[in-house]
């Protein structure tokens, strides 16, 4: 098997503990399989991008010994590929224009774990006098099953429980769900290891892969780190950045968070030594099978919810 894994940060801020977990897990899994590990900068959302964040993330990854095997891919340079995929879906009648604003969707939709679920208002056609804003996927009415290497069997009725996802946003930018599917396939990604905040998006991504005739990679979702109030440690909420000058505390904490056996002292004398150990010691079955877990403000301890 050719293993190709990836870490796909959005440059909306420095690398923090929440994103570090996904980086460490995807890297360790790739190395344990003797595979290739790629970094993809998901800089599609230009309005939310923080200048200098992509460079800062790459610099921190290097400082932690997380070396990528191929030149990082920047999604901002892939517009043409996304436009082509969108065209392919449109020709097959799988997209439709939507006039709804965020406020209308929040008002009319049911609320799922990832926010309001679009009620499909514009599916039968745009309401009279309403101009199109975004383009959505006409989700086929099928339940999707996905085997997740950490979270186990997942089943979702995408149309009902996730809704018709946006493919091109009201500001004209291509949306994450489309771009991630196009790039995972284009880069030949065989294994996706990422945060469990994306567990709910996975069935929709599988449907998009099928609609575009693309292969579905294997998925593993690591527990999402949340703060004491249950909120995701997001870059924008100023979660403390990982300090590239002091990589060890963050690295060992992430390793422990992922349920892995404590690294023996002799593996902690150099980063290269640690990663050699980690490639041998990584056991994905030890990662806690929970969707979210609380990061204790005291770095010595984490409480699994
Ligand atoms: N860019 C996404 C993030 O930073 C991750 C996307 C993915 O791994 O599929 O949360």
Shape: elongated
Give the CATH topology of the largest domain. Rossmann fold
Number of strands: 15
Helix content: 25-40%
Query: Bound compounds, please?
Result: glutamic acid
Distance from N terminus to C terminus (CA atoms, Å) equals 35 Å
What spatial order of strands do you see in the largest sheet?
A: 3-2-1-11-12
* Radius of gyration, CA atoms, in whole angstroms: 20 Å
**Uncertain runs:** 300-305
Q: Structural class of the helix and strand makeup?
A: alpha/beta
CATH architecture of the largest domain: 3-Layer(aba) Sandwich
Q: How many domains make up the coordinates?
A: 2
The H/E string reads EHEHEHEHEEEEEHEHEHEEHHEE
- Describe the sheet with the most strands: 5 strands, parallel
Fourth-tier CATH superfamily name of the largest domain: HUPs
Mean pLDDT: 93
CATH class of the largest domain: Alpha Beta
Percent strand equals: 15-25%
Per DSSP, the total helix count is 9
